[in-house]
Each structure stands twice: as C-alpha cells, then as structure tokens.
C-alpha cells in the first residue's frame, strides 16, 4: 500500500525528515506479516497524520508493530510469558484488553485520533494511557495537550472506573506522564 503524499506541518528540515520516515514506515508496513484488513486500517490512520514532529518521534516503531501501536489490534494472550498463562492471568489480561477497547471506543466517538494517545498493558497487567506528543511549549500547544488530557480523563471515567484524582491525571497526561486505568469490577 502506498500513502497519499500529503503536506506535513513543521519546519522545512522537519518535513523532509518526516517525509522520509513516513515513506520508510509505509515500506515496512507493506512488508510486514499482518492481515490485509489490519494493514488497510493501519494505513488509513497513518494517512491522517500531518504533524512532522509526530512522525519523527515515532520513527523507531517497526512496521509490524504499527497496528498494535494504533489500537487496530490488541495484544495477543499467546505473547504473554509462559508463567502468565494461568486462567487468572488470562482473565486479568482479557479484562484489561476489554477496558482498553472501551476507552478506544469512547475516544473514537469523541473524534480523538488514535495516533494522539497510547494505551499500554505492561507485564504486570496494568493498563495505562499516555499522550504520544507532549512537545512544544507555546500556550497553544499547552492548551491542546490539556484539551486532549480532558478528553482522555472523561473517556476513562465513561469506560472504566473513574480515576482517583482526575486533576492530577489530567496534569500528568498533559506533561507526558501516564494515567493508570483501573478496570477492576468489569464493565460499567
């Protein structure tokens, strides 16, 4: 698949570098061993990204990692370490994956692009969310980060247990930190 050449936003040096990264990413994605429908959904999301800084910051993501990075796919139970293959561990992971999908659905409905945030399930089966781009110190960039943090905090409240301290999580998200998502108790 090829990406339609779109105009990237950034300085001339950034846009040249980001355009090269974007081309390499599409080549890697074409060669990756992933299903065609997953590849198409991933390419669709990537074609919408016009921020050169975002492409530069994500330059180390490999082609076959993009679907999971964008939430097109979810982590597979088979990829867990062998000592995590107990029924309890599988249930906890399934619960976190379901919570992640609920958060994605709320953010999708709100119009938040999947490249704006990252959902992570770590080896301790903790689910957390963070913004992918916390660069820029202008008042406009700070306001954009806070607005996205507000949307993320609201999505978590709708899709999982509300955060203990929404204001602290909002500030952490806007400043590049992560917010833990507690989904114990299942779907609300």
- This entry's quaternary arrangement is single chain
End-to-end CA span: 39 Å
Give the topology string: H per helix, E per strand.
HHHHHEEHHE
Low-confidence stretches are none
What is the total number of structural domains?
2
Beta strands, count: 3
Let me know the largest β-sheet. Answer: 3 strands, antiparallel
- Strand order within the widest sheet? 1-2-3
**SS content category:** mainly alpha
Q: How large is the radius of gyration?
A: 17 Å
- Coarse shape: globular
User: What is the overall number of helices?
Assistant: 7
Strand content: 5-15%
The residue-averaged pLDDT reads 80
- Helical fraction equals 40-55%
Could you explain how this protein is built, in words?
- Helix 5 (about 85-110) packs across helix 6 (about 140-160) and helix 6 crosses helix 7.
- The longest helix has 23 residues, at about 85-110.
- It is built from 7 helices and 3 strands, in the order αααααββααβ.
- The chain has helices spanning about 10-30, 35-45, 50-55, 65-70, 85-110, 140-160, 165-175; strands at about 115-120, 125-130, 180.
